[in-house]
Design a protein that fits this description.
It is built from 27 helices and 28 strands. It is α+β, with helices and mostly antiparallel strands.
């Protein structure tokens, strides 16, 4: 990574000096197949022509390129010596003219880390697949360019590929004389250009729209995946969601989709969920489901499809100037994913998922020492990479949901429409959006922005209820608190709901009031005189972003009657609040687990149920007192098995409980049941143990030493696919053996032979909660290795190693002290590396506080 960083100041200086008229990029990827060229990385030829202007003739600047070698560089017809002008990441450009032409002929490297042009060999059939992934700054690994979002330009790509391959890019393409040539794009940023190439399975459809003025829009649609996944590919559902989304955004944005065709590629070993390349969106192929999954998985895929589609306007058509305003695209896309899911598709409960799952991500990120405002201070590209986080996405989306409540949906959408038309194909800052929202809403957006976009931290809202002698509400107030480190008390538009049990025992809302919460205490006058509540739910309907707390009566009600809450969103909000209390050491982990065991079986929303399973697993592993873990694990396994047997045969709930049971199984009898379900000697009515579920059951068997290498090899032979290989690698690394751990550590830390997907799988298997003592030697090794790993490996692999191998399971004061010692001794380490270690330290300190709470300390 040294020399590859780009600072905000450098980018601003270059943007002030240069403007780009266009790129012509020629790639020859025929080297992707066949034998490698010998020593060193496998490479491909990349020839780039950039036409650009300089408003200060005679000035100097630089172009970006990360490549093993450069064959030739020409600037305005002058041949430059590559050894003099190229340093491995930049090409020096001296004595620029007013109008310039730069031609760079380079040998670029195929990637094994998912950054740049990734090359994947399918173990099932030996076929080779390529795709690009660039955000925030990896297009320079594929072609020479000016790698920053505000130097937009049109692009023309041409690609030479093996004869039997198909190639896709942002524009429509045709093959002639052995070369794929693609239509010139609209002006776009470098990080959203894209090439996908290989023998992909490709399905087509089309979308048509006639607008009120009679104009017709036709968009060719395509969806592609590896041939090995074709039998599982439900392209019809992908196209259904795509068409529903296009209709929805055309209805609300009043700006026709501007990028011609709309292809969607599901690609292997993808680091992200998806990427919004205009005309060629890429997704991780795990969105193609090889086995039975719940409705929540389909909803999640639909949300991602719509999130990326929203980017065609928020991010691609109008792009932030620099990564400070990353939220201008990601927060909007995250909000629009749920907004469009509810408004256009069969997933009408998407706001429940948002409240329960997305916001949990935001709440965690916003309480870390690295928390930052939604509009962040991004000094360089390493900062940018780490800011694709829960704050930029989910907190930003939550703030926009609050903004809709604040200004009204009509004003919000009209502001978006004006924003698109005013800044199409351009770049913007925060003020550009706020100005149109002020126009459409008549509100002063500056104060709202200061509170919501330019400060960090999450507020807590707690109800205070005073009852009259007659048993009615005398006064109900909302108390707002903030952490000392981030003391901002924000304005919140909230709904406060009052709940009581009916004669039939259902816990239902009987009164509701919306109020603007400001300052430390706000009285909700509209609820005075109401019947005394058994439960007060602040932030009912999830209008704002906050941690919801409960008064003593409400908490007691939830302990006894949480399952009686009839409204699924209210129930999800209560679960979320209880989980936040557990993380904040206000509710013992064993109490949270008991609530899940008592009430989760009644949960109708499958996404909420699966989130509860994930939270409960975390509570057991990280937040339970050490002396209760064994008991807690046994209780959870017993409860999960009971719910599994009681669930309707073949239901989503049955599948979810089966997966949770496997995740907590450790007793001999439970492991024997899993073995029996795998070999057919045990049956649970309606439970189809398909290949994906087989790997789920094998994971605990491997971690507890029941499934050995031979068993895992036999399972791979049964599922000799890329997915099967990842599962096998994870299971192999999870076995309880000193030799296994040493081998896994060496493969990830001491070698760069594994691809990104296999690094991820190995890390996932390495650290098992049942193997805390076996992992003891790796605390010291971790702190001795991470600075070297960060310096030598790509930023993606560096992040995976630093986050994934942190000794969180060695949850003791000694590990906390070791972390502090490393931080004290490495004050000069890369800021992004220190941020990752600080975040892991904070998680560990939080776990220790929660363990003390659970143990009664």
């Amino acid at each position: 990574m040294p020399g590859e960083n780009l600072s905000r100041d450098e980018a601003r200086e270059r943007a002030a000096l240069l403007s780009v008229d266009g790129y012509e990029v020629s790639l020859d990827v025929r080297s992707a197949v066949g034998a490698a060229q010998g020593e060193g990385p496998r490479t491909f030829r990349s020839v780039t022509t950039i036409r650009f202007r300089c408003n200060e003739p005679g000035a100097s600047s630089f172009a970006d390129l990360i490549a093993p070698s450069v064959t030739a560089v020409s600037l305005n017809g002058r041949d430059l010596d590559p050894s003099e002008v190229f340093d491995g990441s930049r090409i020096a450009l001296e004595d620029l003219a007013a109008d310039n032409e730069l031609v760079v002929d380079a040998q670029c490297a195929y990637s094994r880390t998912g950054e740049g042009l990734h090359r994947f060999v399918d173990p099932e059939d030996g076929e080779v697949y390529l795709y690009t992934q660039y955000e925030p700054a990896d297009s320079r690994r594929v072609f020479a360019n000016f790698e920053q979002p505000d130097l937009k330009a049109p692009f023309r790509f041409e690609v030479r590929a093996p004869e039997e391959w198909t190639v896709w890019s942002n524009g429509a393409g045709e093959r002639a004389d052995g070369v794929w040539r693609f239509a010139e794009t609209k002006p776009i940023s470098t990080y959203i250009t894209c090439v996908v190439a290989g023998p992909y399975h490709y399905v087509t459809d089309s979308y048509e729209r006639v607008f009120e003025d009679g104009t017709r829009l036709e968009i060719p649609l395509g969806a592609l995946c590896r041939k090995g996944l074709a039998p599982h590919f439900d392209a019809d559902d992908v196209f259904l969601i795509t068409k529903q989304g296009l209709d929805f955004f055309h209805d609300h944005f009043d700006y026709p989709y501007p990028f011609g065709k709309y292809d969607q590629a599901f690609v292997p070993e993808y680091n992200l969920g998806a990427m919004e390349n205009p005309g060629m969106v890429t997704f991780r192929e795990e969105y193609i489901f090889r086995g039975k999954v719940t409705r929540a998985s389909y909803e999640g895929r639909a949300n991602t499809i719509l999130h990326e589609m929203a980017h065609m306007w928020f991010g691609d058509l109008v792009t932030m100037e620099w990564w400070d305003d990353l939220w201008l695209k990601e927060s909007f896309a995250d909000f629009m994913g749920a907004f469009a899911n509810v408004g256009a598709t069969r997933f009408k409960d998407a706001w429940i998922t948002f409240a329960n799952r997305r916001k949990a991500w935001a709440y965690r990120a916003d309480q870390l020492p690295s928390t930052h405002p939604i509009t962040a201070d991004i000094r360089d590209l390493e900062d940018a990479k780490l800011n694709f986080d829960g704050i930029t996405y989910a907190k930003g989306a939550s703030a926009l949901k609050q903004l809709v409540a604040y200004v009204g949906q009509d004003a919000f959408l009209e502001g978006a429409r004006r924003y698109f038309k005013r800044h199409a194909y351009g770049n913007t800052r925060l003020g550009d959006l706020l100005s149109v929202l002020e126009e459409t809403s008549g509100r002063d957006m500056a104060a709202w922005s200061r509170s919501w976009l330019q400060t960090a931290g999450v507020n807590s809202l707690t109800p205070q209820v005073l009852l009259s002698a007659a048993g009615t509400v005398d006064e109900l107030a909302v108390v707002q608190e903030a952490a000392e480190s981030h003391p901002e008390l924000r304005p919140h538009r909230v709904a406060v709901g009052l709940y009581r049990r009916t004669a039939e025992g259902a816990l239902e809302r009987y009164a509701r009031a919306e109020v603007d919460v400001e300052g430390p205490r706000t009285v909700v006058a509209e609820l005075a005189g109401a019947q005394a509540p058994e439960l007060v739910l602040v932030n009912d309907d999830d209008l704002t972003y906050c941690k919801t707390r409960f008064d003593a009566t409400s908490l007691a009600t939830l302990r006894e009657h949480l399952g009686a809450l009839t409204d699924p969103l209210a129930r999800a909000l209560c679960w979320s609040a209880l989980w936040n209390m557990t993380r904040d050491a206000l509710l013992p982990a064993r109490d949270f687990a008991a609530l899940v065991l008592r009430f989760a079986g009644r949960e109708s929303d499958i996404g909420v149920l699966q989130m509860l399973h994930a939270w409960t697993g975390s509570a057991l592993v990280h937040y339970a007192a050490p002396d209760w873990r064994e008991t807690g694990g046994r209780l959870l396994a017993e409860g999960a098995l009971r719910e599994l047997r009681d669930a309707a045969p073949g239901s989503e709930q049955q599948l979810a409980w089966a997966r949770f049971f496997a995740s907590v199984a450790s007793e001999e009898g439970d492991l024997a049941l899993l073995r029996g379900l795998l070999d057919g000697t045990e049956k649970i009515d309606g439970l189809d143990v398909d290949q994906e579920l087989r790997w789920v059951f094998l994971a605990p068997l491997a971690a507890h030493g029941v499934a050995d290498e031979a068993v895992l090899a036999a399972e791979l032979a049964r599922d000799d696919t890329a997915s099967g290989k990842r599962h096998q690698v994870r299971c192999l690394a999870s076995r309880p053996s000193e030799v296994v751990k040493a081998q896994a550590w060496a493969q990830v830390v001491e070698s760069d032979k594994l691809s990104n997907a296999l690094v991820e799988a190995t890390i996932a298997g390495f650290a098992q909660p049942s193997q805390r003592e076996l992992l003891a030697p790796y605390t010291e090794k971790y702190f001795a290795a991470i600075e070297r790993v960060w310096a030598e490996r790509s930023i993606q692999i560096g992040m995976d190693v630093v986050r994934g191998l942190f000794p969180s399971l060695r949850d003791s004061r000694e590990t906390l002290d070791a972390t502090d010692a490393w931080l004290a001794a490495h004050e000069g380490a890369a800021p992004a590396l220190r941020r990752l270690v600080l975040e892991a330290r904070d998680d560990l300190a939080r776990a220790l506080r929660a363990q003390a709470c659970d143990g009664g300390a």
